[in-house]
């Protein structure tokens, strides 16, 4: 028999195609790009802010958990319905994508796919720099909620650096606007940036206003080949301390290179210990000089080879192969655990050494790639969740990755968020009071704990990652 809130929900979403309750649908909304699987009681697909507001009023009255969801590419468990309730799928809210050429802004519905914003901006001669490798499949709502980064974070920053304003439905179902079209805004607390990266725990984003910038005049890419992983880490610091600011500087280790070459050959050197992919953008004369200088620095530090690509097509090929790393390594074993421990840039070589030790110590399939230019590494462990003995070793390896990142002065997450996967380690990084202050913010916004409950904050006494059953 239907519960009272389920009967009330049918009065809000009258279109039966947008209110899902059959087991197959519920199952397919129970996972994301991370690890766990949970079952919601209902899935709703609202098409406007008013429906979202009515759903939140109902959820708040009946104490039903609501889990906002974009395309569920999250790698930390953000949209997982860990306490059942309602999954609120925002993908049908995608009607608005307006470029304002006079103000250099874009106003966008939350379900719009990120790469569409970039395309629309470029048509008008502008640039929307945040470029998560999932940009062709993830939504702007998800990107804002996770404060997603990507290769270009090094020079241009992350999603949050481009969010000027938001329209948000609060956990109580009120519709509010924060920020706006202005580049500067210091009126009171910066609620826009509090909501950015809040992982759907403070409200549902129903519209985003983004800052655009002029499109850089030209671009070149370098592929630098190393026989030693630690040397590649030193080259990253070498280039940055020389005064060059690449728009992207990515590292791919040997395991990932081989996985890409097996998946869809891109011509990456399979015998290299690591490669760096570097992109320089700006005025053609300036990048010409920087290209020569970056080549010299890399060779001095021990690069075996430096290839350059100035042609648009050649560059596209190099970077498309980079985007294939994640799907390619997913083929190594059935379960992929993707981390984004981020360290100060000077600590990249040390972190590489620690990761090699962890790989040996726990005998796990640990591979590394990532946005090395900003210290944001992606150690990934490929495993099989049905093998409980191996999963125990994986649990310990993942915990040690987090601990190592914190010990060298880094952070649990540079861009994937905390979700369920990193919650047990929050106190380690923030301290007791730091974490408590965050809890107080959550309680003030959402006293009935209906907005994405079970995320970010560890459960009482939870200090360990548990991946086994
Ligand atoms: C192959 C691959 C590559 C990736 N590369 C990158 C990368 O380079 N950089 C990076 O940062 N991440 C990357 N990710 C992670 C992921 O794509 C991002 O976190 C992305 O922003 C999630 O968007 P989504 O639409 O899938 O959101 P979801 O996964 O559905 O949700 C993510 C979080 O946002 C919340 N949320 C979603 N929509 C809303 C809304 N409208 N209002 C409030 N809360 C909302 C959810 O509750 C959840 O907590 C990658 C993932 C994959 C699978």
Automatic annotation (TrEMBL):
Family, as annotated: Belongs to the FAD-binding oxidoreductase/transferase type 4 family.
Cofactor needs: FAD
PANTHER family: GLYCOLATE OXIDASE SUBUNIT GLCD
Keyword list, A-Z: FAD, Flavoprotein, Oxidoreductase
Domain FAD-binding PCMH-type: 36-215
SUPFAM superfamilies per UniProt: FAD-binding/transporter-associated domain-like (SSF56176), FAD-linked oxidases, C-terminal domain (SSF55103)
Signal peptide range in chain numbering: none
Record keyword Zinc present: no
The keyword Membrane is assigned to this record: no
Alphabetized PROSITE patterns for the sequence: FAD_PCMH
Annotated protein name in UniProt: FAD-binding protein
GO molecular function: FAD binding; oxidoreductase activity
Classification via InterPro entries: FAD-bd_oxidored_4_C (IPR004113), FAD-bd_PCMH (IPR016166), FAD-bd_PCMH-like_sf (IPR036318), FAD-bd_PCMH_sub2 (IPR016169), FAD-linked_Oxase-like_C (IPR016164), FAD-linked_OxidoTrans_Type4 (IPR051914), Oxid_FAD_bind_N (IPR006094), Vanillyl_alc_oxidase_C-sub2 (IPR016171)
Pfam family, one: FAD-oxidase_C
């Amino acid at each position: 028999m239907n519960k009272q809130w389920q009967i009330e929900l049918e009065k809000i979403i009258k279109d039966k195609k947008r209110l899902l309750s059959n087991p197959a649908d519920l199952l397919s909304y129970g996972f994301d790009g991370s690890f766990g699987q949970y079952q919601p009681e209902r899935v709703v697909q609202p098409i406007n802010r008013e429906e979202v507001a009515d759903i939140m009023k109902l959820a708040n009255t009946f104490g039903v958990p609501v889990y906002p969801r974009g395309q569920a590419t999250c790698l930390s468990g953000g949209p997982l319905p860990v306490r059942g309730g309602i999954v609120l799928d925002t993908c049908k809210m995608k009607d608005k994508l307006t470029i304002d050429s006079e103000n250099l802004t874009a106003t966008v519905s939350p379900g719009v796919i990120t790469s569409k914003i970039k395309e629309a901006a470029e048509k008008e001669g502008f640039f929307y720099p945040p470029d998560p490798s999932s940009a062709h499949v993830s939504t702007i709502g998800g990107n804002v909620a996770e404060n997603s980064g990507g290769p270009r974070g090094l020079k241009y920053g992350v999603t949050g650096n481009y969010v000027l304003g938001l329209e948000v439905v609060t956990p109580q179902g009120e519709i509010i606007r924060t920020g706006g079209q202005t580049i500067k805004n210091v009126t009171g607390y910066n609620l826009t940036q509090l909501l950015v990266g809040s992982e759907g725990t403070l409200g549902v984003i129903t519209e985003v206003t983004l800052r655009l910038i002029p499109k850089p005049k030209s671009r070149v890419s370098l592929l630098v080949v190393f026989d030693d992983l630690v040397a590649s880490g030193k080259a990253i610091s070498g280039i940055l301390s020389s005064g060059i600011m690449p728009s992207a500087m990515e590292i791919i280790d040997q395991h990932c290179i081989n996985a890409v070459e097996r998946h869809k050959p891109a011509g990456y050197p399979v015998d290299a210990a690591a490669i760096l992919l570097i992109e320089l953008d700006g005025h053609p004369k300036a990048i010409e000089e920087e290209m020569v200088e970056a080549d010299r620095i890399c060779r001095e530090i021990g690069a075996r080879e430096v290839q350059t690509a100035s042609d648009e097509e050649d560059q596209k090929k190099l970077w498309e192969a980079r985007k294939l790393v994640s799907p390619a390594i997913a083929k190594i074993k059935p379960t992929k655990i993707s981390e984004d421990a981020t360290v100060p840039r000077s600590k990249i070589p040390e972190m590489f050494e620690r990761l090699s030790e962890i790989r040996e110590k726990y005998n796990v399939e640990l591979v590394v790639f990532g946005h090395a230019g900003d210290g944001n590494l992606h150690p990934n462990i490929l495993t099989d969740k049905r093998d409980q003995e191996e999963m125990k070793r994986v649990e310990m390896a993942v915990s040690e990755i987090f601990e190592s990142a914190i010990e060298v002065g880094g952070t649990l997450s540079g861009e994937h968020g905390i979700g369920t996967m990193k919650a047990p380690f929050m106190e380690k990084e923030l301290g007791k009071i730091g974490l408590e202050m965050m809890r107080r913010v959550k309680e003030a916004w959402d006293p009935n704990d209906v907005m994405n409950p079970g995320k970010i904050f560890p459960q009482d006494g939870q200090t360990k990652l548990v991946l086994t059953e």
